[in-house]
Amino acid sequence: MKIAVFASGGGSNLEALLNACHRSGPARVALVVSNRADSGAVAKARTAHIATSIVGDPRDGAAIVRALDEAGTDLVVLAGYLKLIPPSVVAAYRGRMINIHPSLLPAFGGEGMYGKRVHQAVLARGATVSGATVHLVDEEFDRGRIVAQWPVPVMADDTPETLAQRVLAVEHQLLPAVVLTAAHRGRVEALRVSAPDFAFKNAAAADLTEVWRGLASPIE
Questions:
Q1: Looking at the domain 2-218, which fold is it?
Q2: Domain regions of the chain by residue span
């Protein structure tokens, strides 16, 4: 399964996917798309000799679809991409486009809710649980059908930075689990996470396929 990853920032979730998608495995990152030529994600892609596409106008759906089609994209993964996907792109890849969000949606989602802003809002609300969500992408920010969620406790002494670090550790496991499941099954499927206690947080990159097998199971 050929994966196209959209990212605007440093690309840590892209790196997690690269570690999980071995050259001989069921999925590989074939393209990295960004609205920023100077993003860390683009730098990581070039280091890994992965094709990149810089979106000059994030509203130009035709150009985005063309880049995805030329790369033979099977699955689109939004991993810290901060622009709304044009409706024509959603239509072309409906059911084959997922996003990872740093909260338990539908709470703390929507336009402008990304990165540190999400964690600030969680703490301001006094929530005791946060987490990460993978969902299908539709025409609105963070409103598509939820595919998988992993809860993370909010500690009494948390700052936005410490909470972000804990949620990001979960993102780096949850997103590859969803992608590898999609690659094995041939389609995006909802997952039930069975290890919310960070059981696999120290797994080596070479073990991530086995981590996927133990981490999550498709919801039949």
A1: Rossmann fold (3.40.50)
A2: 2-218
Length of the chain: 220
Q: Which pTM was predicted?
A: 0.88
Of the residues 22, 49, 101, 119, which is catalytic? 101
| Backbone φ and ψ of 28, nearest 5° | -150, 145
Dist CA 28 CA 3 (whole Å): 6
**38-80 pLDDT, tens digit each:** 999 999 999 999 999 999 899 999 999 999 999 999 999 999 9
Q: Is the peptide bond before 86 cis (omega within 30 degrees of 0)?
A: no
Does residue 101 carry a catalytic annotation?
Answer: yes
Q: How far is it, in rounded angstroms, from Cα 86 to Cα 61?
A: 5
**For 21-159, where are the alpha helices, taking DSSP H only?**
40-47, 61-70, 87-92, 116-125
Structure-token pair, residue 126: 């006094």
